[in-house]
Design goal:
Layout: E1 3-7, E2 10-13, E3 18-25, E4 33-39, E5 46-51, E6 58-60, E7 68-73, E8 79-84, E9 93-100, E10 116-117, E11 121-126
Parallel strand pairs: 2-11
Antiparallel strand pairs: 1-3, 3-8, 4-5, 4-9, 5-6, 7-8, 9-10, 9-11
Length: 127
């Protein structure tokens, strides 16, 4: 059974940091492209960050560029991380990781390109 399990969410003050993790299991994800998305109440799911299977290519939403860093560890079972620094109240959302084997570069920000999704982890940033 394919599973993506996020962890690391929580409550943090503005300016603080959190590191989210996404553990993949059920199949070999070393060749899969991975992404992070988030969804705030009453809003659509939005792209946060993307990483290629090798980790050599990354893309970020403008709203998080320079503050968030995506990385991955393919050593055993794939784990994808999202290091979030200088957090703002507007970063408050449920954060999801997602994966797919093939994703055209020009569409990495579209949630429709991802086949597998985790259950999400809540991030709340207080002002």
């Amino acid at each position: 059974q394919v599973q993506l399990v996020e962890s690391g969410g929580g409550l943090v003050q503005a300016g603080g940091s959190l590191r989210l993790s996404c553990a993949a299991s059920g199949r070999t994800f070393t060749s899969y492209r991975m992404g992070w998305f988030r969804q705030a109440p009453g809003k659509e799911r939005e792209f946060v960050a993307y990483i290629s299977w090798s980790g050599s290519s990354t893309y970020y939403a403008d709203s998080v560029k320079g503050r968030f860093t995506i990385s991955r560890d393919n050593a055993k079972n794939t784990v994808v991380y999202l290091q979030m620094n200088s957090l703002k109240p507007e970063d408050t959302a449920v954060y999801y990781c997602a994966a797919n084997r093939e994703i055209p570069t020009i569409t990495v920000s579209s949630p429709h390109e991802y086949q597998y999704w985790g259950q999400g982890t809540q991030v709340t940033v207080s002002s």
